[in-house]
Amino acid sequence: MTTETQATAAASGANATDRFRENKKFAAGTSQERVDLLASRVIGAINQTILEEKVTYDEYNALKAWLIQVGEDGEWPLFLDVWVEHSVEQVANENREGTKGSIEGPYYIPDAPKLESPATLPMRDDEEGTPLLFQGRVTDLAGKPLPGATVEIWHADDVGFYSQFAPGLPEWNLRATVIADGNGDYRIHTMQPAPYQIPTDGSCGKLIAAAGWHAWRPAHLHLKISAPGHQLVTSQLYFKGDEHVGDDIASAVKPELILDPTPKADGNGREVTYNFVLDAA
Hints:
The chain is an alpha/beta fold and 281 residues long. It is 28% helix and 22% strand.
C-alpha cells in the first residue's frame, strides 16, 4: 500500500474544513428575515419528516450521535458538497445561457500555478494513467473568442486521490491555472482521472453503509473558466461510458458535460475537444 492510499476520511475532512474557512466568504449580510425564512423551512421539514415517519427516540439519538461525529471528523464540507451542493448550483446557474455549471466540491485549492497554453499539468515523473489531451476554445455567447481566458483545472489521479488531500502527493499534482492563447484556445496535457469513492471510513461512510447506498463518483475534470467582462463558470466534465455517470452519488452529472475522448493519432493516450461559452457579466 502506498502512502497516498493510506489517506483517511478524518484527515481529508479536517483539511477540507480548514480550506473552506480559509477560502470562502460567508453570507454575513443575509437579512434577519431571510435567516428566519430559511431556518424555519429547514427545521420545519425535519420535524415534519419525524412526525410523518414516526421517528423513534433510538433513531433520534442515533442521528444526534452521527451529527456530532460528522463535525468531529471534519466531514461537513464533504457531506454538504456531496448531498446538497448540486441544488445550490442549480439555483445559481438557472439563468446561464453558456456552458452548464456543476458543483465545485470540497477539493478546490485557489492560486494553482499559472501556465501558458499549451500546458502540461504538474505531475509525478511516474504518474500512472492514460495520457489525455484536453483542448478547446473559450468564447462568448456570440462565438467570439476570448483571448487570455483562464482555465483553472484540478482532478484526482489514477487511483482517485487529490493533491493536498492525501499524503505523499506533490503539492500541486494535477492542478494548474492555464491561460488560453490569443485565439481563446487552450491545450492541456494531463492524465485521465479515475472514478473514485468518496471517503468511506468516516461518518459519511457510515451513513452510506447504513442506507445501503454506493459511494462512487464518475471520473471527472474540475474546472473554473473565466475571462474579463464575463461570468465565471464552475463546472465538471465527465467521460462517456463511465458506469457511474448515471448514478453519481453527488447528483452532479449533466448530459451536456459528458466527454467522448478518442485515441490520439500517435497512439499515446486519448484526446478530446470541449469549447467553453461564457455569459457576459
